[in-house]
Amino acid sequence: MSTRLLSSAAPDRVAAIWDAEGLGILEGAVTGFASAADLLDGSAWANARREEIADRVVDVIAVRAWHALPQLSHGRARRVARRCIAYSLAADTVRADGSGTARADCWTLTTHALKLLTIREHFDAAAHRSRELLGVAPRGRLLAAWQMVDDALGALGTTRHEWVGADPATVAAAGWVLVDRMSRLLMAAALVAQSAAASAGDAELLVNAARRYAWNHLRRPAPEAATPTHVQRSADLVHAFLTPGSIP
Q: Which terminus of the chain is more solvent-facing, meaning fewer CB atoms within 10 Å of its CB: N or C?
């Protein structure tokens, strides 16, 4: 489905479409982005472009790893995970093709997911599912990816109190940070698990993807929630920018 049809829909409908069709939408965007790459060109420009394309490719690989898992296996995390991953599908589509409608959907999907993530049971269920998928530390090169996921899960616990029980309207100001982190933890853990179980022929490619995905998305500070003061300061900045002469 074209992303042009999504932004005018209700939040539940937007989330349902990205949940059902988001992988196909993202695959199409990344395929279009990658199709212009010249694999034989060794110039600096071509190498830089391929690096970004490879980042978008591992985004697809991670979503595929998540979708390969039986939905019922996610237990209590199933509902919140679907909302969080719907957000990342839209965000990754924006990175791949600059879709303005997908960008607008990200705001809708952020607030939709936060309605659950500010509830203790859903926050904890998502974190627990990531830990469950991650499993025990593997050997070899996959250990680096495992360690990045493990570290990010530990960091998540340090700011849990800022989100659980918070007003969704207030924390929505920085809510994408939490929604993105939860979805990346779930997908990175799924990719680590898939890599650990892969055959010798597939293992190297999957391990490379797991390491790159965790490196790209999880090596960041713990997600901090916005406060009413932060929300007001943001509004003041926008107002000043729109008022001629207010900003030096």
A: C
